[in-house]
Amino acid sequence: TYPSLIPAPPSAGLTFGVGQIIGVSFDHAVTNRAAAEKALTVTTTPPQQGAWHWIDNKTVHYRPQSYWQAGTTVKLDANLYGVDLGGGVYGKTDRSVTYQIHDSWIAKADGNTDQMQLLHNGSVVGTMPISLGKDATPTHVGPHVISDKQQQVIMDSCTYGVCPPAPGAYRSTEYWAERISNDGEFVHENPNTVNQQGSSNVSHGCINLSPQNAQAFFNQFGLGDVVEVTNSGGPVLPLWDTYGDWELSWADWQAGSATHN
């Protein structure tokens, strides 16, 4: 089985935020999970305690107890070549990757105040009026991690099964978009909701910003940076939803490891 690295090995100079989850995905099911974990080594500088957690039978994620320290270097060595992973599945190759963690950037989006605080290394450096998901399509609660950013993106409800002529179907081009889950939640510009931003929640689940604020957010926040959503009225972000990993308590996270005592 070929091990793919999560996130993909970065291009030169690309760094990640303190919420970045790392992991390995296999193209065959792994039945001997303990053997797989024992072949995976994470080295952090400075040292931080972390643990593996199986998301499904092909995917294992690793995170520390709380967000990475700013400036951390994270090295993942997947020494999987020839390792018996059970059921006739063997590791096809060794892989190694190093990730650099940049300063802590955390956005705290509050559905009660309809404001989003921006924190740099723990200090509030700005606040932006927002509109979260309306009652019918509330934004997920909990820590989200930015997994992708595009200056423009087509948002199409049909990608998750809501197609015209169904009520609530939509397709639109949005700008300064940063993905925070895999079910259509982004932080992005929405000029149409500027009058509601700061006062009411009217989106399809995204975090809407004014054009000026969206561009400023896009320029500052990147992959692995954190968006914590509170008071949205929505359910907790699911573990499997790209990076729902931070929703779990440390004890629950460790329980998902095959080698945890």
UniProtKB/TrEMBL annotation:
Residue ranges of domain L,D-TPase catalytic in the record? 105-230
Whether Acyltransferase counts among this entry's keywords is yes
Question: What GO terms in the biological process aspect are recorded for it?
Answer: cell wall organization; peptidoglycan-protein cross-linking; regulation of cell shape
Spell out the InterPro entries in the cross-references: Big_10, LD-transpeptidase, LD_TPept_cat_dom, Transpep_catalytic_dom
Q: Which GO terms describe its cellular component?
A: extracellular region
Residue numbers annotated as active site: 188, 206
Q: In which pathway does it act?
A: Glycan biosynthesis; Cell wall biogenesis; peptidoglycan biosynthesis
Instruction: Kindly give the Pfam families that the UniProt entry links to this protein.
Output: Big_10, YkuD
Record-linked CDD domains: LDT_IgD_like_2, YkuD_like
Q: Which superkingdom, per the lineage?
A: Bacteria
List GO molecular-function terms, semicolon-separated. acyltransferase activity; peptidoglycan L,D-transpeptidase activity
Q: Which UniProt keywords apply?
A: Acyltransferase, Cell membrane, Cell shape, Cell wall biogenesis/degradation, Lipoprotein, Membrane, Palmitate, Peptidoglycan synthesis, Signal, Transferase
What is the protein name for this chain? L,D-transpeptidase family protein
Annotated organism of origin = Amycolatopsis rhizosphaerae
Q: What is the lineage of its organism?
A: Bacteria, Bacillati, Actinomycetota, Actinomycetes, Pseudonocardiales
